[in-house]
Amino acid sequence: MQTAISGNTFLGLELGSTRIKSVLIDENHALVASGSYEWENKLQDGIWTYSLDDVWTGVESSIASLDVELNTVKSIGISAMMHGYLAFDKDDNLLAPFRTWRNTTTEEAANALTKEFDFNIPQRWSIAHFYQAILNKENHTNNVAFITTLAGYVHWKLTGEKVLGVGDASGMFPIDDNTYNYDLKMIEKFNALTKCNLISLLPTVKTAGEAAGTLTPKGAKLLAPSGKLQAGIPLCPPEGDAGTGMVATNSIAKCTGNISAGTSIFAMAVLEKPLSKVYMEIDMVATPAGAPVAMVHCNNCCSDIDAWAKLFEETLSVFGAATDRNTLYETLYKKALEGDGDCGGILTYNYYSGEPITGFDEGRPLLVRKPDSKFSLANIMRSLLLSAMGTLKIGMKILDNENVKLEKLLGHGGFFKTQGVGQSLMAAALNVPIAVMESAGEGGAWGIALLAAYAARKKEDEPLEDYLNEVFAREKGTVINPREKDVKAFTEFMKVYVSGLAVQRAAVENI
Predict the structure, then answer these.
(1) Domain coordinates of the chain in residue numbers?
(2) What does the alpha-carbon distance between residue 502 and residue 346 come to, in Å, rounded to a whole number?
(3) What is the DSSP string of 275-304?
């Protein structure tokens, strides 16, 4: 075992939809070690969920796979998938299974709150889940003493502090752009609707750089059961994966933006001015520093790609031609570039779960083709990759119409892992240059480690934006500009994609 340099490293941990990833960085923000643990959500009684036992098994395993002996670090940061619903009673007992962002069961509540607040409340948001539970007259709602997100839960158990970074908090309840805290007028409206004291149930909001508690002895053992990790280590405010994605791509300044593409896909645009009206397709959230952000969030991205990759992997193994996972994905992604511009007439939908932007409460992964379609591996892969961006394109057109300025978008996540493939296709889909940094593969875990480092060394009045510009001054990356022929091809693909949503709806209704 290698021992981490005491006090000179920063630990970032992110609980994503398919992986719990941990990274250790040094004072120059360079990667010292990384580890991960694979997990999957489960559909139980119609609810997408993870068990809290799996949370701690995964956290411990991810930290252990760093292959370093952690005695102490300078600071720690916790990040996780945003939104969802974790409700506890006054004795800290979980009142209902964890309801993740992937659930689309809160349409009634989301629509009612959107109308009441004149502010878009997506189905994923914690407040939509809570209000829907109240509307459903679920017994547990009478005993709720604390509501939080996954990142807030893990941070709470490590420190005893019920706090949340403003970026993650903005996916629980609307944030006031002036105070960087919950919008009190909307809090009052919710209280009038429900006769509850909502502010007492929500985590305290913190902005990047603020103190957010220290690791307790019990928390230290949750991270490293060996007992060698010291208590007393400070933690930065816990953040959601959207916020850490912005940090990991240096996209927190006005007119910057990024795309995170993994299990879900979402684009973030830091606004120069407010949008002209409320859009059901656009979430209004915040950077970890509190600046307003327009977010286009789609529930489905790479899950269907992963399913097909597993099928091809199984096929290879049957013939004794097994290959490693990285080579498999790289080969399949590159094959997509050989496909026809129209995917040979092959149309796929990656809807594993509902997709509010297109009005679906449930999903059915589909492949549709005509008898004379060019049924080839290249065209299947190209269709899978293009369909992963289809719903995002529908939402992004709204920002185009609002004249939201974006000189380029920075991509991160599994979709961009194979060099040049997802990047070039995304540039064509959105008709904007797409940049990918060399550090993008570390994603949000690196982003929350940077926030931990920022909190540990925060100078008086040093904006997060200035700190990140210093970090990224040494970062290298590539930019791919959209090619006219690819933009035209994707535009034609989208016409078929939108028309084919009727097939998706028929599948949901009949299968």
Answers:
(1) 303-405+482-510
(2) 16
(3) -SS--TT-EEEE-TT--EEEEEEES-SSHH
Count of Cβ atoms closer than 10 Å to residue 63 Cβ: 22
- Token code pair at residue 405: 């300025």
d(CA 310, CA 329): 10
- R_g of the chain, CA atoms, integer Å: 22
Dist. CA 138–CA 247, nearest whole Å: 38
Per the CB < 8 A criterion, the answer to whether 297 and 81 are in contact is no
Q: What is the per-residue pLDDT across 22-71, written as a single tens digit (0 to 9) for each?
A: 999 999 888 899 999 999 999 899 999 999 999 999 999 999 999 888 88
The answer to whether residue 1 scores a pLDDT higher than 50 is: no
Answer yes or no: are the C-beta atoms of 334 and 381 closer than 8 Å.
no
Q: How buried is residue 377: exposed, middle or buried, by Cβ count under 10 Å (0-12/13-18/19+)?
A: middle
Using one digit for the tens of pLDDT, what is the confidence trace for 246-263? 998 899 998 899 998 988
For residues 203 and 180, give the distance between their C-alpha atoms in angstroms, rounded to a whole number.
13
Strand, helix or coil at 15?
A: strand
Distance CA 91, CA 74 (A): 32
Tell me the β-bridge partners of 38: 19
Identify the DSSP state of 235: B
Name residue, tokens 């407040």. Answer: 127
Inter-axis angle of helices 377-401 and 484-499, nearest 10: 90
| DSSP annotation of 345 | G
